[in-house]
Amino acid sequence: MASFHLPLRSSMAALPVLLCVLSCFLPELAFAKTRHYTFNIRYQNVTRLCHTVKVLTVNRRLPGPPLVAREGDRVLIKVVNHVAENVTIHWHGVRQLRTGWADGPAYVTQCPIQTGQAYTYNFTLRGQRGTLLWHAHISWLRATIHGPIIILPRRNESYPFEKPHREVPIVFGEWFNVDPESVIQQALQTGGGPNVSDAYTINGLPGPLYNCSSNDTFKLKVKPGKTYLLRLINAALNDELFFSIANHSLTVVDADASYVKPFQTDVVLLSPGQTSNVLLKTNPNFTNATFFMAARPYATGQGTFDNSTTVGILHYGHSSTPIPATGIPSLLPNLPAINDTNFVFNFSRKLRSLANAKFPAKVPQTVDKKFFLTVGLGTAPCPNNATCQGPNGTKFAASINNVSFALPSTALLQAYFSRRANGVYRTDFPARPIFPFNYTGTPPNNTFVSNSTSLVVLPFNASVEVVLQGTSILGAESHPLHLHGFNFYIVGEGFGNFDPNKDPANFNLVDPVERNTAGVPAGGWVAFRFFADNPGVWFMHCHLDVHTSWGLRMAWIVLDGPKPNQKLPPPPADLPKC
């Protein structure tokens, strides 16, 4: 690049002009910083419920350390693997514009980081502010390898709501008294459902309703008459969760790091991978009082699940109040019934984008590519000379359009970029079910799924509409689908079978919520739209990890655009090898 020099007086005179150029025309450079983190993956003995388990952690913390940055910042996280297991980290919800090499899902955008190796994830936080999460993205390692991503507004910019007195991350998780890897490996081997977790946790602590856990209880001390911003994150492996605080209401102001029109609620629902910022306004008349907060699952499927409740404490004042030895259930907040699908549906319909001049809702008004995708469970044949514990002696499976996605042994993005797709993946994923049936009615007799590594190819910047249709095969249940590399607008949802002739007339194309993870209603459908403006290979999967392990996953290829800034750059030099 050519360089030039000005005399000192001239350069000083030009400084205001230069600053104006930087701030007015290059706002991302005006106050942006480069932030460096090191994540050391290590074993750590952790005791919960009187069980000590050697778990995988980042920097020996559970949950892991928060990644804090501002919108527009560049972030470099060096991940060093000190354990025997292969590891990757996914920055869930980060758009990763032209930085797909840093997205993290194993065998999709990268090969895993092997023992003794390191990889630096390098990306810029563009056009996002709010709360997201990072987590491991290989097998079930994210059970303990996870933590918050906190994206603050640009410097000198404020929230579009009242400035909080304090901000508090609240991470929901699941605790197993055994190694979670042994749980999923046993399930895949037997073909049956996996053993469920032993507790839910709030910021790593299960709370007093569990054995040996009165001292392992999350406590939040507050002052009367103040506003607190709670950054809620569902990092649980396999469960959607209701959350509430007794005698307090919450104001939802954000979902998946996108601002929403504020609304009050007593209960928040979060699927795994979903996040939400809520405002808690403390009562000005409480000076020394204690209230319980609680989270428990929303579940509609036929399988077993962890039907327990994690409890934390909200305490007014400085002195610590002992947890009552008895009577805790009577002091808990009122949570919906475990299978209250109507509450879940009505809650999701309250979420609307701000859709104003500063935070517009850029919803595709027309559609170039339409996809109708069934999502649900199925079965796979039991291997010869084996006994399987799935339905009728088969193995549990899961699929999208009856395709159970098989991960390759090398990374899809590397195969795509190097034009070596042969033997790694195909591009014949069906845009609609090959064999239509009454999706939410009586299931078909044949529930076997097919297996392949088939991808969808999208032209750059195509407007895309996806309808995700739940099925009743092996029971209707909710499926939180997460799309990597994009936010999308949820334009419609409903129960029963989607009607392409009637339902689109009711789509919200004005202020639909913008998310990265959408819950497919139990026995219903959800429709979303997005622009394919991010070149690369992008994973989409159910965020109930057991369903992902069974094959409820797929990948999209978004082709390069014609301009230099619309193309996927080459991989970094330290990208792990398989």
From TrEMBL:
The record lists the organism as Cucurbita maxima
The protein's location, in the record's own words, is: Secreted, Extracellular space, Apoplast
Cofactor(s) demanded: Cu cation
Q: What is the documented function of this protein? A: Lignin degradation and detoxification of lignin-derived products.
Q: Which gene encodes it?
A: LOC111482154
One function term, GO molecular function aspect:
hydroquinone:oxygen oxidoreductase activity
| Record Pfam families | Cu-oxidase, Cu-oxidase_2, Cu-oxidase_3
Q: Where is the Plastocyanin-like domain?
A: 41-155, 167-318, 437-560
Q: Which UniProt keywords apply?
A: Apoplast, Copper, Glycoprotein, Lignin degradation, Metal-binding, Oxidoreductase, Repeat, Secreted, Signal
Cofactor binding: number and manner: Binds 4 Cu cations per monomer.
Top EC class for this record: oxidoreductase
Q: Which GO terms describe its biological process?
A: lignin catabolic process
User: Residue span of the signal peptide, if any?
Assistant: 1-32
Output this protein's name: Laccase
Q: Its catalytic activity?
A: 4 hydroquinone + O2 = 4 benzosemiquinone + 2 H2O
Chief place of localization: secreted
